[in-house]
Amino acid sequence: MPDVxxxxxxxxxxxxxxxxxxxxxxxxxxxxxxxxxVVDTGLAGEGEQxxxxxxxxxxxxxxxxxxxxxxAHPDHCGNNYLFSQAAIISPKDGEVIAPGVRAIETPxxxxxxxxxxxxxxxxxxxAGDAMPTFGxxxxxxxxxxxxxxxxAVSSMARIINLADIVVPGHDLPFSVLKRSTVQLPIRRxxxxxxxx
Length: 196
Prior knowledge:
The chain is built from four helices and 14 strands. By secondary structure, it is an alpha+beta fold.
């Protein structure tokens, strides 16, 4: 079964009118067999934080072989350069990336938004901005920034129907059933040989 690690939680800061002042995406690592997949790389300038988190898992950036951006906004791909040895892929709906790891199309925030589904004892969906915050889930409201509201609502429903745990684009992971934030399930990783 794939291992999933939250490298860096996302965050978002808004002013009183709801205008975004600062947005930084979640960065997630999935390890499936020998494949090491980073989903989103955060905002430029967060490289040191990402590298330190990888080092704590016993990994160097050149060991990452696959990079997936949920969409092309700069707060989600600002550190792609760290992973110069990785293939940057744009998988289609249902495409298997590695054993137990596949992509789904989740348009609405952008037309090309995708999410990554990781199957295991609990299904984890790395949602990007198709589900930007825990609050979007709690209030059942689509992303504030979207190109198509109906598609955004439909994508959120698809994520919720699939997921036990969601890694949102700009918040802590949360349990759909418990309706609370959670730590990702950490299992023994073949990559580092350690329990995290």
